[in-house]
Amino acid sequence: xxxxxxxxxxAEEASAIxxxxxxxxxxxxxxxxxxxxxxxxxxxxxEDADETDVPEEYENLGPTEREELLLExxxxxxxxxPAKYKDTLHEENKLFVRDRIDLWFDADDDDDAFLFEDGRxxxxxxxxxxxxxxxxxxxxxxxxxxxxxxxxxxxxKRGSMAAKGVEKFLRMQQRALKTGRPVLYLMDSSxxxxxxxxxxxxxxEGIGKYYYNHSMLSGRVPQVCVLYGPCIAGAAYxxxxxxxxxxxxxxxxxxxxxxxxxxxxxxxxxxxxxxxxARMHAEESGSAxxxxxxEEHARELVSQLVTYLPDNxxxxxxxxxxxxxxxxxxxxxxxxxxxxxxGYDMERVxxxxxxxxxxxxxxxxxxxxxxxxxxxxDGRPVGIVANQPAQRAGAIFPDAAEKAAxxxxxxxxxxxxxxxxxxxxxxxxxxxxxKDAILEKGKKMIYATxxxxxxxxxxxxxxxxxxxxxxxxxxxxxxxxxxxxxxGEIAIMGxxxxxxxxxxxxxxxxxxxxxxxxxxAELREEYREDIDVRRMASEVVIDDVVPxxxxxxxxxxxxxxxxTVEKDLPDKKHGTVL
Length: 578
Prior knowledge:
Layout: E1 2-5, H1 11-25, E2 29-33, E3 41-43, H2 65-78, H3 83-91, H4 97-104, E4 113-118, E5 135-142, E6 145-152, H5 163-179, E7 183-187, H6 208-217, E8 223-227, E9 230-232, H7 237-241, E10 244-248, E11 253-255, H8 259-266, H9 272-276, H10 278-285, E12 290-292, H11 295-305, H12 332-335, H13 347-350, E13 360-362, E14 370-377, E15 380-387, H14 398-413, E16 418-424, H15 431-435, H16 438-451, E17 456-465, H17 468-471, E18 481-484, E19 489-491, H18 495-508, H19 513-531, H20 533-538, E20 544-545, H21 551-561
Parallel strand pairs: 1-2, 6-7, 7-8, 8-10, 9-11, 10-12, 15-16, 16-17, 17-18, 17-19, 18-20
Antiparallel strand pairs: 2-3, 4-5, 5-6, 13-14, 14-15
């Protein structure tokens, strides 16, 4: 340690200062007088000096009564609501919320940890016992990434929401906007507390702000919601505002009103599961992306899902180590029938394209004629939109169009490239699909495809008829490539329908049935030659016709080559399609 003292100090004074300082700080000391470059005195640190020495009164300290009281209060909060409500959790086969948090953020795991909780003392001084006001919020590490989270405590007034819990929920969302980190909602709420609604319902910073914040977070950070119980009214909007919703079989439900309220309003007698259970939302409404078999399975599904997602819209999705497909690409041509009307399972093609073990389908039980799934090709995440000829011949019905539109929109928001695998006769026709809004929902799919700025690859696997080629990102929709397999056809309609539409009158004029059948076959063959993808490639409508066995390599190379592509949308506030 070096010390400089004022001009005029004597050598004795400098020596005394050096000795005193060395004793006090436990270090060597040099004392300089005035502007001198040479020390006037030096003193070594005492031989028994110990940097850790502290005054005796600071040794062996422990918690005071004040801290012990605080710890007792915290322990009481962590215990949750009354025991009688905890007993019902076991009957319903679900975890107490603190145990659920332990399941998700196990501190013993190097990748996962509960980091902190905000608002733990909410409603601490309430007359009623309301630990944390029934809502837990904080920060945690999940699968190696930091996330914001909230979780309802069902033992506190059935996880219902009131002023303090609402405030915590809003702060968590607003902080997620600042940090750009994902949000995990662990929902188990019966809705707002009606008897306390004046404190949170219509306020500027009340429960209605949840959905404003959901909207602001939408497309900025991934929002993932897992349902653990019946979420009614306002509580049911968080799952549908989330980007990805997981419901637990036999446990989860969500509805705009409870069965009792439905009966009061409409006279309908219906159970909670029939009204808004996991199966209903997975198969009929499309509001559930995934259905889990248990709480543990729900966590497992989300742990897989997040491997395809970036933390926010500024980042690229995470890459993984590349692995070969589960089955050889050499089998693709054998999987795809030449006959355009013969069914087959498109998943048998996909498993020969994507990295083994990476296929992760969303909404598998809704709009089954279109597959929406995440996977990896050479370690790169891609979003797959594929027609499914095994379901309704791959025709696009309203539900499937809406499902695909939402998937495309989310994938684009989080910078996940898109792979379209086309094999469809186009959008379904008929009075029922018109009533079900085929035009409106088909428009959404085409709009999403048009507006997506991520790299897109379109593969014409077999038939691509009518507006199906538009919805599946055909040449007019700015894909980085449109390639085809040799089984591919692109046309306004299939050969049978086209011949019937154009030549029906002339064919009916042929009296001899054999002659008429022969002429019809000739016309059909001529038509198929006209719509064959080789002709499309000859006219440079599409980029290439590739051998099926090389499709995996072709896609690897194209996604790698175009991974830095940048696209701009027209300068405008936003589109008008919702």
